[in-house]
Each structure stands twice: as structure tokens, then as C-alpha cells.
Specification:
By secondary structure, the protein is of the alpha+beta class. The protein is built from eleven helices and twelve strands. The relative contact order is 0.10. It is a peripheral membrane protein.
């Protein structure tokens, strides 16, 4: 039975099976049972096709049952409230991936479970899906449709607060990302200190402010040779990628679902870091050459950002993903990553900050400036994405057709000149005919050109759309920390809080502030390098392209010289 739904975010279709939807658009859903994370329905323009389940909410009568918000519920599990609970049968593991080749097992990599059993909860921090949910990002603007889960530490926070009777007011919105991420608990001192912290991430002062200390063992990693493989005697197919880290120079082979597992671990662990989004999943055409090539290009960019990040590149789970070749060791490392206690708010305990004093108001002003910048950049990236996407369509369709029409018209002129033989000049007729064929060739050159320049531009823009969509939630964490500092100081001034406790809140807020500033500096450093490379590559390819067009035209022009 058809159901009414509302689009939560924009989605731009990329193949004929999909349809585009706009935020707040009313939709008709043909069935609430999602197919590998995709729903089939009709938009307000009467177009019928697929769109991501995580981008919509199904509207129901409040007196009947809660609406289904796929942005925070498991793909293919409609009908649950958006703040769902763990399954009653813990022996049934939840599978976190919804791509066809990612459904029920890990090949020879693991037994049944792909993610550690965790309480399922409301949407989380950093603009990402929860570790048990992925959705397909698109070229469109809004790619922040999912969230990460509330860390288990929050239960400890609530208990500890009731024991100590904290006088600092807690956020009444328990689903605020400031609360869910555990940062509120960290600021208030409710996150228990570990007896031994094995990992440490240092922040130091640089020329432009706080920055992450560089990885002492930098490396890069290539992503090559996407290969279609089968199992179960050909019943199931998947694509594997050859990864070769420069620090060991020994290749490993990974499927997309392995990338997906790593990505979920990253989101769960690194609360205040903008984790680059993985390339999108796709409901159909996963084995088509163009899609495989596009995914490879974007995995290369994703890997480049991972290896260049001073914190993410040192993460034990990432190193395990890149280096482990033994099946038994893989399982052990995978489970160790899933049982990592230094995640979410506890990750903040691993950060060491400089001793330099920073005025909190100055930090807040700096964050506000970055917030305005990131919003403007997000808008401009979307604008360029739309223009470049439209230009691709013109190259493949309109430009080619127009040059073909011009070529056909020249051919018709040449053919008409043959109609009266006594006055026909074969050299001229052949030159005009060749001119027509040249313009048809030029049309084909235009159709092929986006593969050399615009596709690469769109890949970079897509990556930055994901990175930018992470920052609103991260900045919200800092804003929440600032508010707690101001509140605690006011209460200390009024004699309702010990100054020592207020100083502790301020000290922990400094950790969050330094981490955000370090992340902002890393973002700018990468942005300069990436956009410089993107623009240089685009202009070089444009020059090469028009030189090739010019050569074709000059060759044709010489045919008229000796008439």
C-alpha cells in the first residue's frame, strides 16, 4: 500500500533507475520495505524510481504509530521509532551494510558479526550515520542524513551525576549531539579516567594556531586494480581493490564492505574529527565499468585524506585494515577495534594539549569565523558541483549533438556539389566533406572529455561536501562546551560552585577547543593543496583538449590551401 513520506535532504539522481528529491518534498512510497537501503516511490513531479531510505521519513498518524525515520533506523527495518532499542535476541547480530554484496557474511574474514553489539540509539554527532547504518551520498548538497550512536558512557554519566549532585545544569535535550556524543559528560568530568591510556594524540602550537602533531611515520597508500570476483560457485559477486601501503610495500585486497567497517569504526571513535565520507553506494549497476572506475577514483581521494591526517593515519584499526594479511589475525584485530574503550568522549582523554594560554572568547570568535567560512564554502562547492554536473551533461549530450549536426550539414553541402558534374570540383567537395567528418570527431572528443577533467573535479567537490557537512555538529560540541564554562563560572561567582570544579570544566573545555582548532587548521591545509591540484589538473587537461581540437581543425584547413 502506498504511503506518504517527506524528504529530509536533497538527493540528486545519477542513473535512470533513481529519481531526484528535494528537502521537505512530499513523496509517495510504494512499499516501506527498503531494498538494500533504497526505497521505490514517486516524487512531486510524478517521476518514479529509487532514492535512499535514509533520506526520507514516512509520515504516519501520531495516534497510530510513530513515523519511520530511515535516517536513524536500520536500513530495511521499517516501522521502528527513530530512537530504537537493541534487539531482544542478542544472538542475532545486526549487519551494518546494505549493499548486495555486503549482506550476510565476511567471506573468510570473520564469522557472522560485522559490528560490535551496541545499544541502538538516536542520531549522533559529526553528521554521519551510526556504525550500523550507511547511506549513499550523492552530488547534492545535503549529505548529512545519518548519525553515530550515543556512547555507552552516557549511562555512566547519568548515574554519576545523580550521585554527585552536579550543580551545573544539564542539557534538557537529551538528543542534542552535545549530549549524545558524550562531550557534555566529558566537560562535566563524568567520563571515568582510564588507569592506563595506551594511545596519545598531541596538539602543538604552530604558526597559525593549534595543530595536530605530525605522524612520525608518514606514508601513502595506493588503491588499484578493482577486480570482480565471485564465491559460492559464482552465485555471489563483489569487487576487490588492491591496497599497497608505502610503509610496508606489500599489497592487501579489500572489498567495499571492509572499507565500510573501517569507516564505521572511525565515526564511532573520533568525536571531534571530520572523517572523510566514503564514496556512495549504489542500488543498481554496481558492476558497470563507469561506476567501478568512479568508485576507485573516489576511494583514492578518500585514502589520500586518511593517510595525510595526523590522527586518523595512526589509528590502530586503520593500520590493521591496511596491513593485516592473515585471516586469524584479522579477526583478532577487528574485534579489538570493536572493543576499543577510547571512543567518543573517552577519545578526548587521549589528547594532550599545549600549555599556552588561549582566551576562550578569542577561541569562540575563531570558531565563529570558521563556521561562517565553512557555510559559504559549502554553498560555493554546491554551486560549482551543479555547474560542473550540467557541463558534463552538455558535453555528453548537447555539445556532441550540435557538432554532429554541423558535421552533417557540411556533408550535405559536399553531397550537393556533386550533383552537377561539369562544375564539380572534387578537391573542394572532399575538403568540405572532410570538414564535416572533423566536426563529428570534435563532437565525440567533447563527449569523452569529462573523463579527463570534470569527473576529477566532481570527485574532489564530492569529498569536500562530505567534510564540510561534518563541521556543524563538531562546532556544536564546542559551543556546548563554551556554554558550560560560562555557566560554571557564573555559578562560582555566585558561590554555588567550588572554583576548583569550575576550573576543571574550563580545563576540559580547552581540550575540546584545541582539538577543534587543530582540525580546522588541518582542513585548511588540505583544502589549499587539494584545490590547487584540482584547478591545475583541470586547466592542464583543458589546454590539452583544445590543442587536440585545434590540431584537427588545422589539419582540415590545410586541405583548402592548394585548391
Amino acid at each position: 500500500m502506498a504511503l506518504k513520506a517527506r524528504a529530509l535532504y536533497n538527493f540528486q539522481s545519477e542513473n535512470k533507475e533513481e529519481i531526484s528529491i528535494q528537502e521537505n518534498e512530499e513523496l509517495v512510497i510504494f512499499s516501506e520495505n527498503s531494498l538494500d537501503g533504497w526505497l521505490q516511490g514517486q516524487n512531486s513531479r510524478g517521476e518514479t524510481g529509487l532514492f535512499p531510505a535514509s533520506y526520507v521519513e514516512i509520515l504516519r498518524s501520531r495516534s497510530g504509530s510513530n513515523y519511520t525515520d530511515y535516517s536513524s533506523s536500520p536500513a530495511g527495518s521499517p516501522g521502528h521509532d527513530s530512537f530504537y532499542t537493541a534487539p531482544s535476541n542478542p544472538s542475532i547480530p545486526y549487519q551494518g551494510s546494505f549493499e548486495d554484496d555486503d549482506d550476510d557474511d565476511w567471506d573468510d574474514w570473520d564469522d557472522a558479526c560485522t559490528v560490535v553489539e551496541e545499544p541502538r540509539s538516536a542520531p549522533g554527532t559529526n553528521g554521519h550515520p551510526s556504525p550500523s547504518l550507511q547511506y549513499p551520498p550523492a552530488y547534492g548538497h545535503d549529505q548529512h542524513a545519518g548519525y553515530r550512536p550515543k556512547p555507552a558512557l552516557e549511562r555512566q554519566d547519568s548515574m554519576s551525576s545523580s550521585k554527585r549532585g552536579s550543580v551545573v545544569g544539564r542539557n534538557l535535550n537529551r538528543f542534542s549531539c552535545f549530549v549524545r556524543s558524550g562531550v557534555e559528560a566529558f566537560i562535566l568530568g563524568d567520563v571515568p579516567l582510564m588507569s592506563k591510556i595506551a594511545e596519545v594524540y598531541c596538539i602543538e602550537m604552530g604558526s597559525k594556531g593549534p595543530q595536530w602533531r605530525a605522524n612520525p611515520h608518514p606514508f601513502i597508500c595506493s588503491v588499484e586494480d578493482p577486480t570482480k570476483q565471485t564465491k559460492f560457485k559464482g552465485i555471489k559477486s563483489y569487487i576487490s581493490y588492491k591496497l599497497t601501503p608505502s610503509n610496508i610495500n606489500s599489497p592487501v585486497y579489500r572489498r567495499y564492505k571492509h572499507f565500510d567497517w573501517l569507516y564505521n569504526r572511525l565515526l564511532h571513535k573520533f568525536t571531534v574529527i571530520s572523517v572523510p565520507h566514503l564514496p556512495e553506494k549504489q542500488a543498481t549497476g554496481r558492476f558497470e565499468e563507469d561506476f567501478i572506475e568512479k568508485r576507485k577514483r573516489r576511494l583514492i581521494l578518500w585514502m589520500d585524506h586518511m593517510t595525510s591526517h595526523p590522527v586518523l593515519s595512526q589509528y590502530e584499526g586503520f593500520q590493521h585494515f591496511l596491513c593485516c594479511r592473515d585471516e586469524k589475525q584479522w579477526k583478532l584485530g577487528k574485534r579489538r577495534a570493536e572493543k576499543d574503550e577510547m571512543v567518543g568522549a573517552s577519545f578526548l582523554l587521549t589528547i594532550q594539549i599545549p600549555t599556552e594560554h588561549q582566551d576562550l572568547q578569542d577561541v569562540e570568535d575563531r570558531v565563529d569565523a570558521f563556521k561562517a567560512f565553512s557555510k559559504k564554502m559549502d554553498d560555493s562547492v554546491l554551486q560549482l558541483t551543479n555547474v560542473a554536473s550540467e557541463l558534463v551533461r552538455k558535453h555528453v549530450g548537447g555539445f556532441r549533438k550540435e557538432f554532429q549536426k554541423l558535421g552533417n550539414a557540411f556533408q550535405a553541402i559536399s553531397h550537393s556539389f556533386h550533383m552537377d558534374p561539369p562544375y564539380s570540383l572534387d578537391a573542394l567537395n572532399n575538403a568540405i566533406s572532410h570538414t564535416g567528418k572533423t566536426y563529428e570527431t570534435v563532437g565525440e572528443m567533447f563527449a569523452e572529455q569529462p573523463k579527463n577533467d570534470l569527473f576529477l573535479m566532481l570527485d574532489t567537490l564530492s569529498l569536500y561536501q562530505g567534510l564540510l557537512s561534518n563541521f556543524p555538529d563538531i562546532i556544536h560540541l564546542q559551543k556546548g562546551a563554551f556554554a558550560k564554562v560560562k555557566e560554571s563560572q557564573r555559578m562560582s561567582d555566585e558561590g554555588r560552585m567550588d572554583q576548583e570544579e569550575a576550573d576543571g570544566i574550563r580545563k576540559r573545555c580547552r581540550v575540546v577547543g584545541f582539538a577543534l582548532q587543530a582540525e580546522m587548521n588541518h582542513f585548511h591545509e588540505r583544502r589549499v593543496a587539494d584545490f590547487k591540484r584540482m584547478m591545475q589538473s583541470y586547466l592542464k587537461q583543458q589546454i590539452i583538449f583544445y590543442q587536440r581540437v585545434s590540431q584537427q581543425l588545422e589539419k582540415t584547413l590545410r586541405m583548402y590551401d592548394n585548391l
